[in-house]
Amino acid sequence: MEKVYINSIGSISAQKTFDNSDFLEEIVTYEDNIIPVIEPNYKDFIPPAAARRMAKGIKMGVVASKIALEEANLTDIDAIITGTGMGCVRDSEKFVTAILDNNEQFLTPTSFIQSTHNTVAGQIALGIGCKGYNFTYVHSSVSFESALIDAFMQLEQKEAENILVGGVDESGEHTNAINKLIHHIKPEKINSKELLHSKTGGAVFGEGANFFVLSNKKQDYSYAQLLGVKTYNTLAKSDLLANLEVFLKENNLSFADIDVLIIGNNGDIDYDNYYSELTNGPFKDTQQVAYKHLSGEFNTASAFGFWLGAKILRTQQIPSPVALNAIKNKGFENVLLYNQYRGKNHSFTLLRRC
C-alpha cells in the first residue's frame, strides 16, 4: 500500500496562521469565553461580489483551501473531503429566526441553501472546477478525523493521488448562547494564557478552518507522513492506555517511540483528566504540546492540532506558547495527537517526519 503525505497546509484560526511563512511567532491573547478567528483580507482570495454572498464559514473554508492548493502548486485535485460539526450554523440560525419573525411566510431560500453542512466543500469544488469525489462528514468532534480516514484509505489504495482534506466550523451567536446555558462554555471570561490551568467546568469556544493536501506522492516540500488515524465514540479512562498501545503496535511503534504528544485539553476541569492518563503516565518524560488555548474549542479544533503537528515536524521546533514542559529532544520523528470532547469521540492520529 502507498504511503500518505501532508504536502501543504492552509489555516484560518484565532491566531495569525494564514501566513505559512510564520509559525506562531506572534501570539494573540484573549480575555473571553468565546474567541473569533483572525480573518485575512478576503478580497485577496475571493471576488468581493461573491464574498458578500458567502457566510463566514464558507469564506474561511474557501480561503484556507486556496492557501493549501497554492502551496502544493495545484489548481485541481482528485477529491475534496471535509469535516464539520455544525456546518454553516449562522445561516441556519438566520433561517430559523426568519421563520419565527415572519410567521413562516415570505421566506427567501438563500440562508437555507447556504446552511447545509456540505456547502463549504461545494463552494470549493465550484471555485476550482473539481468534479471528483466530494464528501462531508458530520461526526461531532471526530468529523475531521473521519475525513482523514476516508482520504487515507483512498490514497493507500491508489484510488486518488491528491486529496484536499479539511475541517471547518464557525461560531454562531444563538448556538453559543445554548452552550452557555448547558455549561459547555465557561461562565466567566478567562485569559487564554491561564486557560489550561483553569479550575472550572466548560471550555472557551472558538472557530476555524484548516485544510491540507494529502497525497501518495512525496514532494521536497512535504510536511510529514500520515501513519494512521483511529477514532472511538466512547472510551473509558481505564481503557485509554490499552487501546492506545494497540493503535501504536498496529503502526509498529511503542510509547517510547513518540517524540511529541499533542493533546486537546481545553481547560474543562471535568474532562481534562483524560489527558492526564497520558501526560502523567507513559508520556511523562515526553515533550508535551497543547493548542486549544490558542484556537478555542470547536468540533474540528483537532484539525488545528493536526496543522500544529505538521508544522512541528517540518520546522523541527516547538513554539514556547504551546509547550507544556521543558523536555528538549534532539529531533522530532514521531508525533501523536490525542483529542476527546467531554469524554466522548476520542481520536488518535500519528504523524512521522518525512
UniProtKB/TrEMBL annotation:
Domain of life: Bacteria
Entry GO MF terms: 3-oxoacyl-[acyl-carrier-protein] synthase activity
Keyword annotations from UniProtKB, A to Z: Transferase
Gene3D superfamilies noted in UniProt: 3.40.47.10
Cellular component, GO annotation: cytosol
UniProt entry tagged with the keyword Nucleotide-binding: no
Ranges of residues in domain Beta-ketoacyl synthase-like N-terminal: 46-218
One Pfam family of this chain: ketoacyl-synt
Record flagged with keyword ATP-binding: no
BP terms from Gene Ontology: fatty acid biosynthetic process
Protein name (database record): 3-oxoacyl-(Acyl-carrier-protein) synthase
Natural source organism: Arenibacter troitsensis
